[in-house]
Every structure is written in structure tokens, then in C-alpha cells.
């Protein structure tokens, strides 16, 4: 394991990967982050100690596990209350009944919780151990395990591509450049023999910047090289081409990926918080009832002891079985979710919050890999007068073959013969040459590099040997910083013009006839978010012609190309289809024009002040009156069924926000194509703002828009939140959809917290990359998608799914059922405690306010367990509508967000039912008993059990065969146990007809009115779901 950042990351070094670490914040507070000097191959020169490069996702260690788990349990009022009540039974004066009646349920609850936490913790430990035991030597197509400076590569160009999807969510490949001093060394081993060091700034959050220097002291003169972001390889990125060798500068908690990851929090569901509030209300009622009893006694004798005894007698008002039933219910919902064949591969990682899936108001989703597959497909080529789609691409292919076959005898010229063919009509010829020009421009104007995989068995420095590489078409893959560019180059290959080779100075195309055309790259102007275009100047080797090609967004290109009447309209048409458009243009340059441009361009590049502005001005002098060649349309394929899923979620009243690290244009395009923004809706693109004044003006402009989707960039968002947080969030929440582009991982998490803070509504975050982990952990409910971007998001999430479309069923069916079932279960368990406490209160008040228990010992334990447990728990199988109906009418989900299934209103209804039934059962038994007190116990307890079983039947909306089994099983258990309850019941009495009719009469009086009320309510005020089922 590497403990020092100064160990050189070479062939023989082993390194442990680093991702998330919950204790990051405490570490950052305890250790001040410092800049460092790292010597190559000389760890002994490093005096500082740096953090271990190990994963730690565990919440506890051996010493903190039991205290930690107990704290998490007893911070809930319910559990703390029962701990106090159970401990009070050790005081002889307060003892009521047997110790096991209090300690057995509490012990069971704690045992279940500790075992569940221990299993979860062990799984986390195993996952961490698996990751920490990975050994690395030389990186090739592997995740980079720590932050490094890039020293050397097997690629001849001295550069390589890396994938950063787990860091920033973008699947574009980024070009990284090795330190030139170390790249030029003759042999790999020379890295150990030189006297050199890297100076690196202190660790920072920003993943897009780095400042450092590389110094070699044993050369004359001393070599100083400045290091920037392009010389770095951050942890969690993947080497996509060649092999790389680097020096480690940051490890563990100091790596960029870990610093951008927030602490996982223990999530508590809204339903649990609501039930916690209700238990506090019940406790208030318990205290009030006990005080009333002592007051009616007249505060005689040691009244405070009597008060405490009453508190214990009525303690069943707050049922400890509530926690057990709900936890077992959650486990059952998790099992049902994972066993659902309609959403295969779904995993429940946090079993404590399935009800949250039924209460969501905001869904925050990533774009790349979540809504889209990130697979680009070329769909449309428009030349102004003629348009080609996927079904007419063969026409383009035949035009290209004809263009190049005309001069197949003359391979020296790359331009097709311009001599008119007598047989071909004139219009056809002009279209053919325009197609040829357009395809050639697309094949040349890009940043794509063809890569050929090395043969197996080739290693180390021998990879430089070209003879060991296979240059066949099947072995070729393309690398680029944008998947759009790869799609364009793959398309030109499919129509006959293939990019076969490229280095820093030239590129080669292969014609349909197999001839190689060479073009020298004179200048490249890369794409930037400001310019929204990229350009290239090439010289044709055979003819010497110099051509300036440019492609870019229609906004940027419309002012550069010559006047035309079709570009704007066609761009709009393609955008409505959800295609990403690029305008392609060219300009021929004479040798003199190019030489003049080159001298001005080089001069601008050397200037110290306003370099970027001067360079842009020189390039713009070329960008005038360019010849418009074509308009291309590329589709980023959406995940399966994204459109119907988003529509379903919208109909369910869920507001959807898309948070992406991608470009503004791309994000807007996907928002339209996925129907996140409907066709009729306007889109307000928030202008870039940098100051308070600009933000104020732009917010005012946005305030005047109505029913309008918002698109905002991360930088502008940061400025708005700094000065006008409340106003911005208030306006954004009124939008039907919001798209935030260029978002960093920490910004995504910040937006989630803002929504939670300002709206108080439940949020859900869904993503598939490492950059989504912070957002997933910050949300009330985090969903990870297992995809091409790895499992990091899925492992950190509360629920893991395999496809975005599964979220529909997960929320509409399982979320809805989990919430409604838990609400019914929770209230019924409370009713079960309230009814027996009401009976105790009536009993005590009739018998001169004596603090004597009505039912003792096994009767109390049996009542909460074997006599009623199975039917009550069978409520977790109940459903109001079939799953198909819930998916067909997502509007049913909207009702749940109002929380009407469990509220103070529904709670009070259950309290009134409990008081009515408890009063009837107790007074009925007291009225009907003739001689002995033991008859009161037998009649009231039997009627109580029957009432509970009938009330379960009344609550159920859809019968399941297991519910019927549970009802009869419980009744059977009770009847069978009567033979053994001699100390509580008179066995001779309970076999008489008198006993049976008295029990039946009381039960009917307690239950029949409720059945009548339910019938009348369903007839005159039916709930929304019943209209569908009928």
C-alpha cells in the first residue's frame, strides 16, 4: 500500500484505489491541506506524511458499532420511552406484571436492528476490501487509483486519452499530455536515475484546474516546465489509449474525486418522522390520562407512585410493536421490489426508506447514461436543396464512389475530375460534387484519432514499434473528445471515405477505391464553449491546395457563412426532432493569404496581455463569407422508453430537473428530444451572468415568462444563488422543467439540498456515474443505474435499477403501495394499543381508580403477538388498485404527496374508533358479567380478539389468500390456547352458550356500526381509486 504521495507510479509499484470516504470532513478540519514537493523515485526525501489511499465506506468500527447502533435506535422517542418503561420494572414499587412482558419486545426490536446493521456493515466491509486489494503496476484501460502527474506514455505523440465519466459525468474523452522532459528520456528506467521533482499546489475541489511545476536539476541548464490540468490524471478516470506512467501527488482523502464527494447520511423516511410526531402526541395523551386518574383519586397516599403506575398501565397506548411491524414491513417491501419480474436486477440497498418512493415531488436526473445511452448515430445530411436521411444514405455512397472512381487512374489527385459526363444530367453532377465536398469536409474537420489495438504479448517500450500493430479496418477504433465527432467520422467511413491515420501534423483518408489521400494539418482551432465552433486548416499533399474548414453550432455559424435562406429553418426542424445540429463550411486560401494569417496568428500567441482576445481576433479575420457546405444532424439515442416514463412521472405530479455536466446546447437538445420539455413549451435560456446586477436583470426578465422551461449553466446558477437564492429557487420551482448544465458534482448535491430546504418536499436523485454520488446521497431517496459508467452510483444509492424506465414502476406501484401499506399498518398497530388502553382506563375508573392491570402476563404478550400479529402484518399485502391500473393512471400518485394516508385527521379518526370500541367492549363485559370478575376478563378479552380480527378485515381493500390464512390461524391459536389459560379464564364458563352469545353481542355492537359507516362512505363519497376499480 502506498502511504506517501512521493512513490513513483511505475511498473513495479502497487497502489490501492480511492473513491469515497465518509470521514472526509473531519480529516479536512484536523489536517491543513498543503502544497507538496514530490521527488521522482526518492520517497526518503519526503518528510510529510500523507493520507492512506484506501477506500472506507463503513459507518462504524469494532468499538463504535454497538454504541452507534444503539444511539441511532434510542434517538427515536418511541424506543427511548420503552427503554425507560422497561427499566422501571426493576423497581419493586413500580412493578406491574412480569419482566418479560416489557423486555421481550424491546429485546426483539434491538436484536433485529443490530443484526440488520451488522449484515449491512459486513457487506460494506467486503466491498471495501475487494476494492482495496486491487494491485496496479502500469495503467492501461484501468481506473486511475490516485491523483497523478502524467510523466510518460507508450503513444508516439506523447499524449493519451482518458475517460472522465466517473468524475464529471462527461463521456467525452479528454486529451492529456505527458511532461515533455520525461517523455523524451531514451528508456523507461531513466526515470529513476534523473534528479527531478514535481511541485504541486495544495489539494483543491476544482477538477478543471491545476498549477504545478516540473524541475530537473541534473541537466544543464536546469529544466523548468510549468504543469497545468492537461498534465494531470485524476483518480477515478480511465486510461483509454496506450499505457501511462505517472507520479502520485494526492492520495486518499486529498484526491479530487473524494473531495467532491459528500458524506453519506443516515436517511430517515418522512413516514417515520410523522409516526414519531404521533407517538409524541400519544405520550401527551398518556400523561394527561394518568394525571386525570390520579386527580380523580384525590391525590391520596403516595400519589406520585400511583401516577407512575398509571403511566406504566397505559403504556400500551404507545405500542412497541409499531417499530417491529414497520421494520418487518419495510423488509417485505424490499423483497417484493427485488422479486418483481417487471423490473429485473433492481436492488434495495437501504431497506429503511421504501415508503419514500411514494412521496416524491422532485426528481433530479443526470443526462448522460441516465436519460441517454450516449451512443451517437448520424441521422441527417442537408445540402440546402436536398436532404438525406438514414434510408437514403446509399445514394450518398454511390455519389462518393462515382466521384473517386472518375480519377481512379490518376491517384495523385484527391479531387474528382471536373470534366462533365455526357451521360449524366447537369443537376446531378452539381449535387454529386456538393456531396463530395461536404463528405470530405466532415472527414477532415474534427479532432478524431484512429487507434489500432496492439497485438497480444507486446509490452513495455516495444509498443512503440508500428510493425506490431494491426492496421485492418476491423481493428480500428476512433478516439475523440466528443462522441458527436466519432459519429461523424464513422458515418464518412460508412459512405466510403475513411480516416485511417492521424498524428499531430497530418491525417490520411482512404477512398472507396483504396487510395490513400494525405493532408497536412497546418492549424487547429479547438471547440470552446464561448466560440461554439472548431476549425482546421489543411494542405492537400497532391495539389498543394490550402483549405480552411469549420463546423459549429448554427448560432455561431449563421453570421460566418454566406447568405442563404434555408439554414435557420432546417436547424429548427432538426432540433424539434431532437437532433444535434452542426453547420459545416469551408474557405479556400491562397499561399499568400495563409502566410499572412500564420505570421499574425503566431505573433498573437506570443503576446502576454489579452492573449486569448488577440488570438480570437486573428482567427475571426478568416471567418468571413465562408461557403456553406451542409448541415448535419446527429441523434444521441435515448434510453428505452424514456419519453413515456417522463410523461408518466409528470402526470404523477413529479417535477423533473435535469442536472448535467454537459454543454448547454446538448442539454437543451436532449431536454426537447426526451420530451422533458414539451413541444408547446417555450424554453428560457438564462444568459451567462457574473455580477449581482446582471443576475438581478436576468431574474427580472425570467420573472415575466410564464409556463416556460428554464435552462441555466452552473456558473450563472452559482452567481444567482450567491445573491438571490430565495428568489431564484422560488422562480425555478414554478417552472414545469429545469435544466442545469455544466454542473459540478458538488453543485448537483447543493441543488438537491436547496430544494429540500426551500420547499420542504421530498426529493429523489437518479444517476449512473461517480459524479452523481454526492447528489444521490444528498437526496431523500437516491436511485443509481448500473450502466456503462460503472457501479459507483449504484453502490452508493438507496435503490439500484438497470434501466431508467424501471423508475416508473418503482414509484407508481412499489412506492405507492409501500407508503399506503405502512400508513395503514402504523395506524392499525396504534389502534391496537389504544383500544386496550381505553379498556384499562374504563376498568380502573369503574373500580375506584385502582392502578391494577386488567390483563396480566401472557394475555398482554399474546395479544400483541400470536393472537393478532399475523392478520395485522398481512396488511403489507393489501393494495387498493392493481399494478397495471396504477401505471395507467399515474394521477393516483399525486394524492400521496399530500400525505393524506397518514395525517392527524386520519389518526384522530382511529383514536375515536379505539375509544368507542374499547368503551363498548369493557362496559359490555361489565354489564353482562353475573358473578365473578374472571368472567369479565374472559368475555372482554375474547371480544377484543374477535374485534381486532374483524377490524383487519374491514381495513383490507384487496384480499390475498395469505390474509385469509392469517385470520383463521390467529383465531385457531386463540381457541387452542384457551385450554392452557386456566389462571386467567374459567374454562367451564367459556364452553357455555351464555359466554358465546355475550361475546357475540359485544363484538357485533363494537364492529357493525363501523361496517355500516364504511359502506355509506364508499357509496356517497368514494375514494378516487375505487372509481377505477369499479
UniProtKB/TrEMBL annotation:
Annotated spans, Disordered: 404-429
EC number from the UniProt entry: 7.6.2.1
Protein name (record): Phospholipid-transporting ATPase
Residues spanning the membrane: 6-30, 100-119, 281-301, 307-326, 829-851, 857-877, 907-927, 933-954, 961-981, 987-1013
Domain (P-type ATPase C-terminal) ranges: 795-1022
Keywords annotated in UniProt: ATP-binding, Golgi apparatus, Lipid transport, Magnesium, Membrane, Metal-binding, Nucleotide-binding, Translocase, Transmembrane, Transmembrane helix, Transport
Signal peptide: none
Family statement: Belongs to the cation transport ATPase (P-type) (TC 3.A.3) family. Type IV subfamily.
Binding site for Mg(2+): 366, 368, 768, 772
Residues forming the catalytic site: 366 (4-aspartylphosphate intermediate)
Low complexity biased stretches: 404-417
Molecular-function GO terms, alphabetical: ATP binding; ATP hydrolysis activity; ATPase-coupled intramembrane lipid transporter activity; magnesium ion binding
Cellular component GO terms, alphabetical: endosome; plasma membrane; trans-Golgi network
Keyword Cell cycle: no
Principal subcellular localization: Golgi
GO BP annotations, alphabetical order: endocytosis; phospholipid translocation; retrograde vesicle-mediated transport, Golgi to endoplasmic reticulum
Compartment(s): Golgi apparatus, trans-Golgi network membrane; Membrane
Positions with a binding annotation for ATP: 366-368, 485, 527, 551, 580, 660-662, 742, 748, 771-772
Catalytic reactions on record: ATP + H2O + phospholipidSide 1 = ADP + phosphate + phospholipidSide 2
Pfam families in the record: Hydrolase, PhoLip_ATPase_C, PhoLip_ATPase_N
Gene source species: Otus sunia (Oriental scops-owl)
Membrane-topology descriptor: Multi-pass membrane protein
P-type ATPase N-terminal domain segment(s): 46-103
Cofactor(s) this protein cannot do without: Mg(2+)
Amino acid at each position: 500500500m502506498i502511504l506517501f504521495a512521493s512513490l513513483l507510479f511505475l511498473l513495479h509499484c502497487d497502489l490501492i484505489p480511492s473513491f469515497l470516504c465518509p470521514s472526509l470532513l473531519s480529516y479536512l478540519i484536523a489536517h491543513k491541506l498543503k502544497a507538496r514537493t514530490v521527488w521522482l523515485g526518492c520517497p526518503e526525501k519526503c518528510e510529510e506524511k500523507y493520507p492512506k489511499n484506501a477506500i472506507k465506506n463503513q459507518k462504524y468500527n469494532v468499538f463504535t458499532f454497538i454504541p452507534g447502533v444503539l444511539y441511532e435506535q434510542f434517538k427515536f422517542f418511541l424506543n427511548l420511552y420503552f427503554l425507560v418503561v422497561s427499566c422501571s420494572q426493576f423497581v419493586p414499587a413500580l412493578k406491574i406484571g412480569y419482566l418479560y412482558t416489557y423486555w421481550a419486545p424491546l429485546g426483539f426490536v434491538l436484536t433485529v436492528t443490530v443484526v440488520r446493521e451488522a449484515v449491512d456493515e459486513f457487506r460494506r466491509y467486503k466491498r471495501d476490501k475487494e476494492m482495496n486489494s486491487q494491485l496496479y503496476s502500469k495503467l492501461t484501460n484501468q481506473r486511475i487509483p490516485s491523483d497523478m502527474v502524467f510523466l510518460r506514455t507508450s503513444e508516439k505523440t506523447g499524449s493519451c486519452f482518458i475517460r472522465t465519466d466517473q468524475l464529471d459525468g462527461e463521456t467525452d474523452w479528454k486529451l492529456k499530455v505527458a511532461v515533455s522532459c520525461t517523455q523524451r528520456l531514451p528508456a523507461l528506467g531513466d526515470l529513476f536515475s534523473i534528479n527531478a521533482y514535481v511541485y504541486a499546489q495544495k489539494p483543491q475541489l476544482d477538477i478543471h484546474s491545476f498549477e504545478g511545476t516540473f524541475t530537473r536539476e541534473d541537466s544543464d541548464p536546469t529544466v523548468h516546465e510549468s504543469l497545468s490540468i492537461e498534465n494531470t490524471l485524476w483518480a477515478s478516470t480511465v486510461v483509454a489509449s496506450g499505457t501511462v506512467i505517472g507520479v502520485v501527488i494526492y492520495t486518499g482523502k486529498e484526491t479530487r474525486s473524494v473531495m467532491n464527494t459528500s458524506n453519506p447520511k443516515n436517511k430517515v423516511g418522512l413516514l417515520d418522522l410523522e409516526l414519531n410526531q404521533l407517538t409524541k402526541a400519544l405520550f401527551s395523551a398518556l400523561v394527561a390520562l394518568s394525571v386525570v386518574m390520579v386527580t380523580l383519586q384525590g391525590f391520596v397516599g403516595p400519589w406520585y407512585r400511583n401516577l407512575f403506575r398509571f403511566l406504566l398501565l397505559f403504556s400500551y397506548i404507545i405500542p412497541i410493536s409499531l417499530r417491529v411491524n414497520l421494520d418487518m414491513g419495510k423488509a417485505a417491501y424490499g423483497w417484493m421490489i427485488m422479486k418483481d419480474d417487471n423490473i429485473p436486477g433492481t436492488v434495495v440497498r437501504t431497506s429503511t426508506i421504501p415508503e419514500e418512493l411514494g412521496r416524491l415531488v422532485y426528481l433530479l436526473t443526470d443526462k448522460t447514461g441516465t436519460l441517454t445511452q450516449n451512443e451517437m448515430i448520424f441521422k441527417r445530411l442537408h445540402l440546402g436543396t436536398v436532404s438525406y436521411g438514414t434510408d437514403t444514405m446509399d445514394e450518398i455512397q454511390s455519389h462518393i464512389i462515382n466521384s473517386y472512381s472518375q480519377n481512379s487512374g490518376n491517384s495523385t489527385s484527391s479531387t474528382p475530375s471536373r470534366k462533365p459526363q455526357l451521360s449524366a444530367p447537369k443537376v446531378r453532377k452539381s449535387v454529386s460534387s456538393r456531396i463530395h465536398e461536404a463528405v470530405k469536409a466532415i472527414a477532415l474537420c474534427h479532432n478524431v484519432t484512429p487507434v489500432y489495438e496492439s497485438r497480444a504479448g507486446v509490452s513495455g517500450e516495444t509498443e512503440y514499434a508500428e510493425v506490431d500493430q494491426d492496421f485492418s479496418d476491423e481493428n480500428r477504433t476512433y478516439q475523440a473528445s466528443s462522441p458527436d465527432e466519432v459519429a461523424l467520422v464513422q458515418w464518412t467511413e460508412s459512405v466510403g471515405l475513411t480516416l485511417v491515420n492521424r498524428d499531430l501534423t497530418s491525417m490520411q483518408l482512404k477512398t472507396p477505391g483504396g487510395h490513400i489521400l494525405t493532408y497536412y494539418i497546418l492549424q487547429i482551432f479547438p471547440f470552446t464553449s464561448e466560440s461554439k465552433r472548431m476549425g482546421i486548416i489543411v494542405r492537400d499533399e497532391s495539389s498543394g491546395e490550402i483549405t480552411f474548414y469549420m463546423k459549429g453550432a448554427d448560432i455561431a455559424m449563421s453570421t460566418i457563412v454566406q447568405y442563404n435562406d434555408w439554414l435557420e429553418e432546417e436547424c429548427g426542424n432538426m432540433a424539434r426532432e431532437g437532433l444535434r445540429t452542426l453547420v459545416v463550411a469551408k474557405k479556400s486560401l491562397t499561399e499568400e493569404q495563409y502566410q499572412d494569417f500564420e505570421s499574425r496568428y503566431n505573433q498573437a500567441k506570443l503576446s502576454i496581455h489579452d492573449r486569448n482576445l488577440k488570438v480570437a481576433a486573428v482567427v475571426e479575420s478568416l471567418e468571413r463569407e465562408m461557403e456553406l457546405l451542409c448541415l448535419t444532424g446527429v441523434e444521441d439515442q435515448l434510453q428505452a422508453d424514456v419519453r413515456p416514463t417522463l410523461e408518466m412521472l409528470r402526470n404523477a405530479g413529479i417535477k423533473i430537473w435535469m442536472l448535467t455536466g454537459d454543454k448547454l446546447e446538448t442539454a437543451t437538445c436532449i431536454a426537447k428530444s426526451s420530451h422533458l420539455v414539451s413541444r408547446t413549451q417555450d424554453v428560457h435560456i438564462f444568459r451567462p451572468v457574473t455580477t449581482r446586477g446582471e443576475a438581478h436583470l436576468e431574474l427580472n426578465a425570467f420573472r415575466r415568462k410564464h409556463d416556460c422551461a428554464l435552462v441555466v449553466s452552473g456558473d450563472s446558477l452559482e452567481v444567482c444563488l450567491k445573491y438571490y437564492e430565495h428568489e431564484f429557487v422560488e422562480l425555478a420551482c414554478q417552472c414545469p422543467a429545469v435544466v442545469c448544465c455544466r454542473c459540478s458534482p458538488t453543485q448537483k448535491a447543493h441543488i438537491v439540498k436547496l430544494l429540500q430546504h426551500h420547499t420542504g418536499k421530498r426529493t429523489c436523485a437518479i444517476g449512473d456515474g461517480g459524479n452523481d454520488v454526492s447528489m444521490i446521497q444528498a437526496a431523500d431517496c437516491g436511485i443509481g443505474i448500473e450502466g456503462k459508467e460503472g457501479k459507483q452510483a449504484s453502490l452508493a444509492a438507496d435503490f439500484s435499477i438497470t434501466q431508467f424506465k424501471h423508475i416508473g414502476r418503482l414509484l407508481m406501484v412499489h412506492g405507492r403501495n409501500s407508503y399506503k401499506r405502512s400508513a395503514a399498518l402504523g395506524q392499525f398497530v396504534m389502534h391496537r394499543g389504544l383500544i386496550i388502553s381505553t379498556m384499562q382506563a374504563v376498568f380502573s375508573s369503574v373500580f375506584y381508580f385502582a392502578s391494577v392491570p386488567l390483563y396480566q402476563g401472557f394475555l398482554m404478550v399474546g395479544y400483541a403477538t400470536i393472537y393478532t400479529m399475523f392478520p395485522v402484518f398481512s396488511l403489507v399485502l393489501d393494495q387498493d388498485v392493481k399494478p397495471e391500473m396504477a401505471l395507467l393512471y399515474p394521477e393516483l400518485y399525486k394524492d400521496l404527496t399530500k400525505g393524506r394516508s397518514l395525517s392527524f385527521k386520519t389518526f384522530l379518526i382511529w383514536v375515536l374508533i379505539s375509544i368507542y370500541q374499547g368503551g363498548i367492549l369493557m362496559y359490555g363485559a361489565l354489564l353482562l358479567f353475573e358473578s365473578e370478575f374472571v368472567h369479565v376478563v374472559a368475555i372482554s378479552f375474547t371480544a377484543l380478539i374477535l374485534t381486532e380480527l374483524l377490524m383487519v378485515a374491514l381495513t383490507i381493500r384487496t384480499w390475498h389468500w395469505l390474509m385469509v390464512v392469517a385470520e383463521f390461524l390467529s383465531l385457531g391459536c386463540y381457541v387452542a390456547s384457551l385450554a392452557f389459560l386456566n389462571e386467567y379464564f374459567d374454562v367451564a364458563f367459556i364452553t357455555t352458550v351464555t359466554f358465546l352469545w355475550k361475546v357475540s353481542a359485544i363484538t357485533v355492537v363494537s364492529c357493525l356500526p363501523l361496517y355500516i359507516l364504511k359502506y355509506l362512505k364508499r357509496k356517497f363519497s368514494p375514494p378516487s381509486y375505487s372509481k377505477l376499480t369499479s
